[in-house]
Write a structure and sequence with these properties.
Length: 267
């Protein structure tokens, strides 16, 4: 019999035990970036330095969840948000502007209507996945993810797509929507339509509600499937993790034993 997996709730969703028991989109992306670092994090041997960007992201999400969640967040993260002499740090002043931009837009607020921060799990590609949906609307059969970005029209080179893409593909948000869509299907019996409510870090912020052509999802699911056997084996310790040799973890743990030709400096 398989070991009982952690019963997920909002308190333990991001815990190390939850990450050991479940795959998630962010863990998949982390395995794509560096298997060695991801495994070291799961084992508790390495912790990524705390990032203000992550706190700002959670701050923005809490603002749209409800007043209680937001007050609780402000209390818990008080010292990272408020300066000792009063007022908020610049990143949070900017976040307030972004939150206000969305809150003042009736269409964006209409799009965000639904149950907030709902957790679902499902079996996919030989593993159990966890997802947390920013907003899900059972009547409309839609779900929404709130995203902040530099600018709506920024172009990024993508090795995955072999072309210039928008922030949505560059940050694998199509992949995220494809996985969420499958997990929600397993829980509700129906495919829900994903949307992104995007707001930019520009001053004043730009905004958009984005939908997806359904034809985009098959490619993403196949892409995930081709990687998963390997990731599952690495996670269970059956296979050795590959080091990216570029991230902070790899640089910190690097041991030289050979030379390489200068050609390999760029790849
Ligand atoms: Zn690495």
């Amino acid at each position: 019999m398989e070991k009982q997996k952690l019963q997920l709730n909002s308190q333990n969703y991001h815990s190390n035990q939850a990450n050991k028991d479940y795959f998630s989109v962010s863990q998949f992306k982390s395995f794509m970036d560096c298997q060695a670092r991801t495994l070291a994090e799961l084992k508790g041997e390495y912790t990524r330095p705390p990032s203000t960007a992550l706190t700002v992201g959670s701050y923005t999400h809490a603002a749209f969840e409800d007043d209680e969640a937001f007050s609780e967040f402000l209390e818990n993260e008080h010292d990272s948000i408020f300066k000792a002499r009063g007022g908020k740090y610049a990143e949070f002043v900017q976040a307030d502007m972004m939150i206000e931009t969305i809150m003042n837009d009736p269409f964006a607020m209409f799009a965000l209507e639904g149950d907030k921060e709902r957790i679902f799990t499902a079996e996919l590609f030989g593993a159990t996945w966890k997802i947390k949906v920013d907003s899900i609307n059972y009547e409309r059969k839609t779900f929404i993810d709130l995203k902040t970005t530099q600018s709506l029209s920024s172009r990024y080179w993508s090795d995955k797509y072999q072309k210039y893409v928008s922030f949505v593909q560059a940050y694998d948000y199509v992949l995220q929507m494809a996985i969420y869509r499958e997990v929600i299907k397993q829980n509700t019996g129906e495919y829900f339509n994903p949307y992104i409510v995007a707001v930019t870090k520009e001053s004043p912020p730009d905004k958009a509600v984005l939908h997806f052509d359904n034809s985009r999802f098959d490619f993403e699911l196949e892409y995930v499937q081709t990687m998963m056997n390997n990731f599952i084996q690495v996670k269970s310790g059956e296979e050795k993790p590959i080091r990216c040799e570029k991230c902070a973890y790899c640089r910190q743990t690097k041991v030289l034993n050979n030379t390489f030709e200068i050609e390999y400096l760029l790849d």
